[in-house]
Amino acid sequence: MPDSTSKRHMPRRDFVVLPLLSIATILLMFGLAELACRVFWPAREQDSCAVGDDVAGFRMRPNCTSTMKNAEGVWTTNRYNECGYRSKTSCGPKPAGAIRIVLLGSSVAQGTFIPYEQTFFARAAKQISARCHTAVDVQSLGVPNASPIFVYRRLNEALALKPDVVLF
Description:
Elements: H1 14-40, E1 50-53, E2 57-60, E3 65-68, E4 76-79, E5 99-103, H2 107-110, H3 120-132, E6 136-140, H4 148-153, H5 155-159, E7 165-167
Parallel strand pairs: 5-6, 5-7
Antiparallel strand pairs: 1-2, 3-4
């Protein structure tokens, strides 16, 4: 019969095994949580229409449609016109009597992860059109992660569209 005053000692191997089991359990829980998040809240943060470009780093493929989603958002469809700009109108000659606005910049100018109708430029075009009683044509040359030098390199491309306003 064991003496009540004697202390019981853990085997030495348990000083190594128990912490390792704890760490393994934590890693397994993190892995399962990550897997569950990827299944139930998928994300597609890369635009499949993006192509490399020597002048501007990259740009969007003309006449391309892609779907994107970040983990917290909704699925968004991006449609690019014949010049690869996120616009519902043609990048050809400016429509007669219309105001043409050209946007330069990065993800904000492109409206990344935002449905077209909710982008600041689509909403602004609608309001300007209603107040000025004229059509407004917006051409968004924005691409995500564009540095100022890449935006500067696209300035001549923007000016070739004969805009009334250029926003950076």
